[in-house]
Structure formats: C-alpha cells, structure tokens
Amino acid sequence: MPELPEVETVRRGLAPAMEGATILDMVVRRANLRFPFPPRFQDRLIGQKILDVGRRAKYLLWHLDGDETVIVHLGMSGSFRVSAINERTKPLGAHQHYFAQTAYEKHDHVMLVTKQPGGQKFEITYNDPRRFGFMLMEDVRPHPMLQKLGVEPTGNRLDAALLSEIFAGKSTPLKAALLDQRYIAGLGNIYVCEALWRSGLSPFRAVGSLATKNGKPSRYAAPLADAIRAVISEAIDAGGSSLQDHRQTDGKMGYFQHRFAVYDKAGQACIKQGCGGIIERIVQSGRSTFYCPRCQR
DNA sequence: AAGTGAACCTGAAGGC
DNA sequence: TGCCTTCAGGTTCACT
C-alpha cells in the first residue's frame, strides 16, 4: 500500500489514539512479520506512555516515555484500524478481558489498547496480509534502518540545487534513482511516476542530466523538485491514495487515486493539454513504469 | 559501481 | 466452478 502520503495519513490517524496515551494492553498473534518482533515486545510496551507518533520517510516512529522508540513499516499491505472503545456497549473490566471478546479479522497481527489521560480508550489493530511490514525497537540510535535515508520530499532541503548535487555524474535512470531511498526517502512507484509526468521528464533519462557540466542545476532540476513536492503535498492533503484495500485508520478512503495522470493508465490518452500521447506501461528494474512517451523527454 | 532478477507472502483479477 | 498465470503501494540480497 503505502508511500509517504499514505504513511503520513496513518500517522495522523494514530495520533489522537496514541499521543499522550498509555498502552494498557497488547496482543501479538504471531512470532514475526518480515522480521521477528523484538524480544519481550509486549513487556517493553505495556504500561508505557507514548509521547508522540512521528514519521521518517515511510517509517512510523512511536516515541515512548521510557526513552525507547518503536519503528513501524507497513510494507506493501500493512494498515492500522483505530476505534474508540465505548465501554457502555463493550464493558472492559480488567483490560485483559478485552481481547477475549475481540473478533479478530484475518491477518490482524498486533492489537493495542490505549487510554488517554481523560479516560478515553482506543483499540488499535495492525493488519498485514503479505507481512512485508515490521515492528522493531530502536535499540541503537539512529536505527541502522534510518541511517541511510535521504532527504524528505516535503522538507525545505529538496530543491534544484540538491537534486543536481546528489545526481551529478550518475547515469542511473530517473525512475530508479527516485525510488532509491538513499537519495530521496519516501517516494514509491506511484508518486515517482506521477512526479516524472508532471515535470515532463522521461523515466529513462539519466539523473546526471539534472546537473550541468560545472555541477549547477540544469533546466530540468527545478521542475522535477517542484513536481515531487507538489504531488506529495497534494496526496497528503487528499488522505493518500486508496488502491485495493488501503483505508485511512478510521476506515475512510484516501482519494488521491482519482487524480493520477499516468499510474495504472496504460492505453489511455495523456491528459496534458495538447499532448495527444498514449500512456504506456513498461518495466524498469522489475517495477511497472507508467509514462507518456510523447511529452516526457 | 551499477544494473537486473529473485526473494519474502497473500490475494485479486483475468484467461480458459 | 476451478485452475493457472500475472500482478500489486516495498525492501534487501545475490548475481553479472
């Protein structure tokens, strides 16, 4: 499912149920996702207060009171559901009784019950059919998983100068380079395709062409930086993109998928004014690329 | 170094 | 109805 805008949407959905709340109880229903769960995972979380829910690229960061951080990645199919617990209709008693009456859905792997200082309780469920996601504790900081990440696409650092700097002299195709989290962290297949279309650049173009011979930004750098920032911001505002089963944490759909220009549009007319091209699907390093061969050069 | 393909895993969709 | 193939929002690893 999730690229940066979807993960940010999840973060915003988790925040009201987690930030400032205490973890009352937790159930982990299998030994591993993509990686084994951390040793004594429940013991280290139950009773802890969550200070805030952060995000770095596609990683969620649960900053705990006890100076530990939980790192969560949603992989391809991970999602969270959050629901307020109404104790009138679902009396809790001792909280461990709560899960006994919970109806698990298929692929629900982790469940948490949190309680805000005001008393409101929440049930938070992690579901992940393909299990490419994971949950880790950040024992070493920064966690090795986060050390190699490049700049955030929405931060102030992503501009024409930075693109020309990090890509100068390289011959990698733009498509592959933009998917590489070591350069820009958070883009995935959808938003790379969309950003390239918006900037009129071919997915085959060598990234080195974003820099001139003396290392300054070429005329292609600023349009790409602007397109990346715009498409990510707009997608976040739209609550992400809902393909297949992706939902926001409250069950609502994101709606950015209605604004795709090229992603999954093979055979359709390019919507750029006066272009007249037909969107093509090709494969680059094992991933689908959707682009307009006419206006993306 | 850079590029490709496979691997991890399940489910949906399409062809026959 | 079922069976088979292909594909999917990510990342890492093994190979040329």
Quick take:
The protein is an alpha+beta fold.
Structure description:
The model has no long low-confidence stretch (mean pLDDT 92). β9 (280-284) and β10 form a beta hairpin. Helix content is 24%, strand content 21%. The protein has helices spanning 4-18, 41-45, 96-100, 144-147, 160-167, 174-179, 189-199, 221-237; strands at residues 22-28, 50-56, 59-64, 69-73, 79-85, 108-115, 121-127, 134-137, 280-284, 287-291. The chain is an alpha+beta fold and 297 residues long. It is elongated, with a radius of gyration of 21 Å. The relative contact order is 0.15. The structure holds a DNA duplex (16 and 16 nucleotides).
Rounded to the nearest angstrom, the radius of gyration is: 21 Å
Mean pLDDT across residues = 92
Strand numbers in spatial order across the main sheet: 1-6-7-5
Number of strands: 10
Amino- and carboxy-terminal Cα gap: 29 Å
Task: Report the order of strands and helices.
Answer: HEHEEEEHEEEHHHHHEE
Question: Treating each run of at least 4 consecutive H or I residues as one helix, how many helices?
Answer: 8
Q: Largest sheet, if any?
A: 4 strands, antiparallel
Query: Which class of secondary structure composition applies to the elements?
Result: alpha+beta
The percent of residues in helical segments reads 10-25%
Percentage of residues in strands: 15-25%
Shape designation: elongated
Low-confidence parts: none
